[in-house]
Specification:
The protein is α/β, with parallel strands linked by helices and 229 residues long. Helix content is 45%, strand content 11%. It has a 6-stranded parallel sheet, sandwiched between helices. This is Haloacid dehalogenase. Keywords: Metal-binding. One of its GO terms (molecular function) is metal ion binding.
Amino acid sequence: MVDWSSLETVFLDMDGTLLDLHFDNHFWLEHLPLRYAEHFDLHPQEAKDRLIPMIMAERGSLNWYCTDYWSDRLALDITGLKSEVGDRIGYRPHVTDFLDALHGSGLRSVIVTNCHPDPLELKLKLTGLADRVDAIISSHQLGKAKEEPGFWQDLQQLSPYQADSTLMVDDSFPVLESARKAGIAQCLAILAPDSQQESRRHHPEIPGIHHFDEILPALRQCQSLTSGR
């Protein structure tokens, strides 16, 4: 599923890949509509009916992920509201074991996320994730979402990489398709990003796993070979 021996760099999405997407889904679909309803004196369902189409209209764009954009548009402190449900932020199964094995393998691990810097700071504070990878890059630093074709070329400015020796792991099929078109040699989909929802179907062309324990044995074998050299 992954040819570890051919890799130098592993790009990792964060939300839905390393961290449980339940936090983000709960926030946008439940907590935000509730707070929006309270703020504007609306029925919760009326608030949800107003918010969800507005949010979905920005899907795939940088605005979709931008805390500043939604704070301005909705007249609410989005980062502050996210901190109210911060107890839901947590790792997906087997992630810490995977990251430890990745570190031991000698491969460079870089989080490449669409998460805005403000909620990113909150998540890093609550998880200690920054200590487990070599670097973290937010698409907001480049002004382009990962779904956009130009993102991967611009990423070279912040994290130079050889596309033919790079793996991208993400729960978003559009992001993985964008990475493949940009020449990223290997892509891997996460099929169970939200612990409270059913798994997604496999992509017809991109291999997928539910959890990292499915690829840990091969990675650890690569780690053993590396340490034995």
